[in-house]
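Journal club side-thread
Mid-discussion, someone asked how the predicted structure for our own chain would compare to the paper's figures. Pasting it here so we can look after the session.
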Amino acid sequence: MLTFIPFLSPLISGDCDADIDCAEGLVCDLRDGTTPVPGCLGPGVSGKDYCVNPTPPGPTPSPYESFGFVGRFYTTEDKTTGALTRYTPPPEAFTTGDTRDILRTPGGTWEYLVLNEPPSTLPWDQQAAANYTFGWSKNRADGQATASAWFPQAEGIDIKYGILNMVSKGAKILITLDLTEETWTYDSTISGLFTDQPDQLTRMFGHASDYIFFAEDGSNNDVHFRNMETGEYGTLVEGGGAGGVGVGSETTGLAFSIDNKFMYAAFQGDAVYEFYREDGRAFNGTTIDTKYHDGA
């Protein structure tokens, strides 16, 4: 059975001939041809009637890029005004004993990230180093304003241990949200060979390590990393640039094996590559003579 996150329009299904064929709260939308289905993307099946929410509470359709889930769903949007959306399922969705109800129980809420900005009088490096507060608004326009000012064209997102990390390829920055304390920091991703747009990311904790690995969208198509304890950046894989492995445009995804000893990177228009350490250790294990970017 297919369920879906109701960001675009909650609870749309078919086929129906009358309202009595639909679940409680839905109505049967009788259509001719490819008449648009309220709240849905695409033309739908020609002539098919759908059960729809008569007043969809979700946001208007957007180019969602990535998402994370920790009791709530968080999504980024690849557009200049793409707000970070937080969808909270209703409490009863978690008490039915069926985890599928997290997605299909109506009554959830949509909120949008609003960053309380640092004082513009501070030098940039002092702004980035400090913690600032943030909140959530039910007004989408508030979230869009924050996105336009701070993280246009948001891409990858990762949530672990109450910390949300996301990147903006438009601003080339990494934003870190402490979801418990509701504070945030940011840092430029431009460092050494890491000059193109950050794309997808994943954060990996070890016994004595804390790294974020980044895919890159641009002419280099590299895989980079950041030591979150020291703030230093380095390059793990050189992709399509000079001296690289000669892959196609854009590193589109990163994943690790269960034991973290193998990293898999997808390169758009090319293939999925497997990488491993020659010493056999995990990527989040002990490192020796790590080469960081000069001046990081």
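Post-session note: Residues 78 and 271 are 23 Å apart (CA to CA).
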